[in-house]
Amino acid sequence: MAETAMQIILGAMLLICGIQDARKKKISVWIIAAGTILVGGCLPFIHHILLIDRIGGVAVGVLIIMTSLITGGKIGLGDGILLCVTGLGLGFWGNLELFAIALLLAAIVSIGLLILRLADRKKSIPFVPFMLLGYVFLIVANANTGM
Question: Cβ–Cβ contacts within 10 Å for residue 74, how many?
């Protein structure tokens, strides 16, 4: 029950932030804060992911935040903060899978845009919609494997 609630919370947060990111290239800190509180409320009832694994999941987001600060915002700070919250819910390996799938999807779309000459190398694209697609992929893949 709590696992399903957390999946819905993370999915809703990624959906809302994905829409905001696609439209304005900014995401609401209030949505992330609400998602963090709700995910935190589910944590005591989910025991299959250890605390150290959840801390590792948050660390994935922290590394993206540090990369954003080092690169002067070439990578969105909000993307890293959002990955911290998903890391809380998914743990280290789940969050790393989410990030890798999102990067792969973003790369495929970027290559397509370059080939079709709809964008150049300097064009930035919103990343959260790819995180949402990656999350949906993980949910479907886990449902099909019986996890």
Answer: 9
What H or E segment, with its residue span, contains residue 130?
A: helix 128-145
Burial class (CB in 10 A: 0-12, 13-18, 19+), 123: exposed
With beta carbons less than 8 A apart as the criterion, state whether 91 and 56 touch: yes
User: Under a CB-based contact definition with an 8 Å cutoff, are residues 109 and 134 in contact?
Assistant: no
pTM: 0.91
DSSP string, 96-110: HHHHHHHHHHHHHHH
Per-residue pLDDT of 75-90, as tens digits, reads: 889 999 999 999 999 9
